[in-house]
Amino acid sequence: MKLTLAEPKYLKESISIISDLVNEARFKVTKESIELVAMDPANVAMVIFKLLSSTFTEYDIKKDVEIAINLNNLKQIMRRAKPNDMLTLELDPDNKLIIRLKGNNVRTFNLPIIELDEKEQKIPELKFSVSVKVPSAVLNEAVEDVDIVAESVAFIAQDKEFTISAEGDLSQAKVEMKEGDDIKIKANDKARAKYSVEYLKKMISGSKIADEVSIYFSTDYPLKLEYKTVDKVMLSFILAPRVEND
Amino acid sequence: MKLTLAEPKYLKESISIISDLVNEARFKVTKESIELVAMDPANVAMVIFKLLSSTFTEYDIKKDVEIAINLNNLKQIMRRAKPNDMLTLELDPDNKLIIRLKGNNVRTFNLPIIELDEKEQKIPELKFSVSVKVPSAVLNEAVEDVDIVAESVAFIAQDKEFTISAEGDLSQAKVEMKEGDDIKIKANDKARAKYSVEYLKKMISGSKIADEVSIYFSTDYPLKLEYKTVDKVMLSFILAPRVEND
Amino acid sequence: MKLTLAEPKYLKESISIISDLVNEARFKVTKESIELVAMDPANVAMVIFKLLSSTFTEYDIKKDVEIAINLNNLKQIMRRAKPNDMLTLELDPDNKLIIRLKGNNVRTFNLPIIELDEKEQKIPELKFSVSVKVPSAVLNEAVEDVDIVAESVAFIAQDKEFTISAEGDLSQAKVEMKEGDDIKIKANDKARAKYSVEYLKKMISGSKIADEVSIYFSTDYPLKLEYKTVDKVMLSFILAPRVEND
After folding, report:
1. How far apart are CA C80 and CA C72, in angstroms?
2. Which residues in chain C have Cβ-Cβ distances shorter than 8 Å to A74?
3. Are the Cβ atoms of B144 and C105 closer than 8 angstroms?
4. Which residue of A196, B44, C196, C198 has the lowest C-beta tally within 10 Å?
């Protein structure tokens, strides 16, 4: 296996975001992509990450491979990648992942492949009554707005309106969005569900890899956030709802 | 009551500075201005804040109102205001202060009005023998200079000279200013008084709302710092002196 | 004694770096330079600092002087120097070091001269088999690269190649440099020695005063790093090796 990225940004940022939710995970490397599906330790959130082979300048793989790795260790190495470094991933015979960064000089890191008992995660099939598309920065601002009053937040949609709302013991916050040039809202029915602000704050870092985010939810049903750059990368999150009387 | 600011900066920065000194306070809203007079919990410093109605793009008030509020909570909301947001303050029937930020979308916060037992603070009548006007940045630098050697600092003036001086156990620091293009010094007599550096460090944040500061003091007498932007905002502080043998 | 610097940067940055390694030290002021030679408290690293008289705009000294001082206190004062301040050093009759910063106004600090029992440090005579010259930024990056896997690092050179390599419990990192336009490598024999990353991280701050660094070492022998700006300043470090089975 030898995979080379001329633009390490997508891998670097994604690993940094994912490692905030998951400690250890298994990458599946196939002809089409590098893929990761993992649950956070509390079983509240799922991360789905796909980096397409078309993002790579070199993508040489004989057969499908699974690579389980400690994401924090990988993140620390990824942080050392500068925007213009050529990043190469290889497997060495001793069961190590070799990460090579080539800029003015060559820096080589290797990381042990770990054993993961955990069985493969299945992506649940979900049907959502609401879909919203907004600039990533708008969702970021909204989550930070409501964060100052409460730990859980309601996502509410009806017709062409989408509201994020939170109630603290004494204070309230509410962010209202309407269909417009850069905001698309489709709500089949009125829908309302509550989610953890703590998890949302980790997920909105997806804004680092895509300028837009797709938001999907239904009443008292999981939320899905999807950050996507066409032909390159997809990072999405599924978050369990909080029951109304949290 | 409905008050709208097109430029939330003055309110935002002032609340942030005041909340460093005072936890809860009462705003008086009159035809002319929003005003706050409060003592810090240790009774060492007084804050006087006035935001003139001319700063507002909409200033609709039927009768004078008093609004007591937790300043930390208010500060957290104010922080969410971006420079070009329209900020609207309203009172709702349930005794809440409604703060609306309007940018690309509308964000609404509300905060409970609290009960404040504390009686109204009177601004003391003070006569000073020294008045100095300097760029705010100059006072900031001077306070930071003396901060490295001691916890209390002497303000000394004579004729056209103004000195800020501090003595630690072993080290000393002294900043000397002379009348000049951007420094005006008027000292009727030689004057000298000592003040707490810790309080001064909080007060000099007034530099965020005005480029100049007026400094008033007399021998062993309170200090007054005044930050003012004409027709808009005035933030001033009165600080009790430290006795010479501190 | 009266010494004036129009450009306080070299003194300011050097003191900041040295104070990370040494708490108290003795400066020797001679006709040629201000010089400091000091060991860190653990006796693992030596600092040699020389600020040439040609750096000063005024360098008035009747006879050689020794000034022992607390470097942390000096650093705090130096931090207050702005890039264009005129910095003057004087000795007052009461055995204090007077530091005057002259910008728009005059700020005067004084610091007690301390007693240092410690005898004068001698610079050891060292012969190195390897000498390498690289841009300071390259050494900085390399030390930060290996820092993520281990606490000690091997410096290895052979012919025209210089490698910095580290092995953690599970991970490895290796930075390879080759002779090139801005990298000069001279290795008489193959050499390999290990050094503490913690100390190296403090020393590479020398990059603040020079764009290039000279690296000297031999097998299981001390390391010398030298940061130099011609006719102005020299800051060098000698670091004891770690035994191979650390």
Report:
1. 13
2. none
3. no
4. C198
Q: Name residue A236's beta-bridge partners.
A: A48, A226
The verdict on a CB contact (< 8 Å) between A109 and C171 is: yes
Q: Which residues of A190-208 are buried (b: 16+ CB within 10 A; e: fewer)?
A: ebbbbbbbebbebbbbbbb
- Amino acid in the structure at residue C104: N
Question: Which among A209, A232, A161, A214 has a CA at the least distance from the CA of A16?
Answer: A209
Query: Is C172 near chain A, with CB under 8 Å?
Result: yes
pLDDT classification of B243: cutoffs 50, 70, 90? confident
Q: Which fold has domain A130-230?
A: Proliferating Cell Nuclear Antigen (3.70.10)
In terms of phi and psi (left: phi > 0; alpha: psi -120 to 50; beta: otherwise), the region of B209 is alpha
Query: How would you classify residue C95: left for phi > 0, otherwise alpha for psi between -120 and 50, otherwise beta?
Result: left
Q: pTM of the prediction?
A: 0.93
pLDDT of residue A243: 80
Q: Do B175 and C105 touch (CB under 8 A)?
A: yes
**What is the signed CA dihedral for C61, C67, C73, C75, rounded to 10 degrees?**
60
A36: pLDDT strictly greater than 90:
yes
User: What is the distance between the alpha carbons of residues C26 and B144, in angstroms, rounded to a whole number?
Assistant: 27
What's the rounded Cα separation, in Å, for the pair C215 and C207? 13
Where helices occur in A85-135 by DSSP H, the ranges are none
The edge-to-edge listing of strands for the beta sheet with C58-60 is B191-196, B152-158, B161-167, B172-178, C106-112, C96-102, C86-92, C2-5, C58-60
- Contact list in B for residue A138 (CB cut-off 8 A) is 104-105
Could you state, in order of their start, the residue ranges of all structural domains in chain B?
2-112, 130-230
Q: How far apart are the first and last CA of chain C?
A: 48
Distance CA B218, CA A46 (A): 66
Distance CA B201, CA B148 (A): 12
First to last CA, chain B: 48
Same-fold call for B2-112 versus B130-230:
yes
Q: Is A94 on the interface with C (CB under 8 A)?
A: no
- Looking only at the bridges linking them, the beta strands covering A233-239 and A223-229 are antiparallel
Question: Which residues on C lie below 8 Å from A77 (Cβ)?
Answer: 148, 171, 173
Q: How far apart are CA C132 and CA C183, in angstroms?
A: 7
Determine the 3-state secondary structure of B154 from DSSP.
strand
Residues 221-240 in C contacting B (C-alpha not used; CB under 8 Å): none
Task: Indicate the residue of B76, B105, B110 with minimum beta-carbon distance to A177.
Answer: B105
Distance linking the first and last C-alpha atoms of chain A: 48
Residues in chain A, overall count: 246
Question: Residue B245: its pLDDT value, please?
Answer: 58
Confidence of residue B220 (pLDDT cuts 50, 70, 90): very high
At the topology level, CATH places domain C2-112 in: Proliferating Cell Nuclear Antigen (3.70.10)
Contact B137, B213 (CB under 8 A): no
Contacts of A121 (CB under 8 A, 6+ apart): A37, A38, A39, A46
C109 closest CB neighbour out of B173, B176, B178: B173
Please give the distance of CA A114 from its chain centroid, rounded to a whole number. Answer: 22
What is the arithmetic mean of pLDDT over C91-108? 93
Taking an 8 Å cut-off on Cβ atoms, the answer to whether A138 and B105 are in contact is yes
Angle between helices B71-79 and B9-18 in degrees, nearest 10? 140
Shortest Cα–Cα distance, B230 to chain C (Å) = 26
- Give me the DSSP letters along C21-51: T-SEEEEEE-SSEEEEEEE-TTSSEEEEEEE
Task: Tell me if B192 sits within 8 A of B174, measured CB to CB.
Answer: no
